[in-house]
Amino acid sequence: MDRKALESALVPFSEFCKKKGYPVRDTCLQEAYPGDSSSSFILEVKADWVDNMDCSSALDILIDAMWETMDENIRKNIFSISVFDSNEDLHCATANVARETAH
Fold it and tell me: What pLDDT score does 93 carry?
């Protein structure tokens, strides 16, 4: 999938998170396999609210937002999510997001 199409899907994702009370400060796509932009991507999310939350709760919120705002084709191209806290330290990460059970 085209990287621009994936990046455009992050706009409604970010808006949905904000609407639900979980604003993201920044999102970024990194190649899961550096140098291969035709493969899966890692979705990096920076959010201050994760400071006060355990990893599984933060990921539940973000994965729910993906399912609400992204179609299956887009989700299949996101291999994992990496969540960064207010200090921009890695808070947590998950793999195989697209394979999560449908809600």
Answer: 67
**CA-based nearest residue to 63, from 28, 96, 30:** 96
pTM: predicted TM-score of the whole model, two decimal places: 0.81
The CATH fold of domain 3-99: GMP Synthetase; Chain A, domain 3 (3.30.300)
Distances (CA, A) of 78 to 15, 32, 84, 103: 18, 9, 17, 17
Q: What is the mean pLDDT of the chain?
A: 85
Paired tokens of 61? 């919120």
- SS3 track for the chain: CCHHHHHHHHHHHHHHHHHCCCCCCEEEEEECCCCCCCCCEEEEEECHHHHHCCHHHHHHHHHHHHHHHCCHHHHCCEEEEEEECCCCCEEEEEECHHHCCCC
Task: Please state the domain extents for the chain.
Answer: 3-99
Position 17 pLDDT exceeds 90: yes
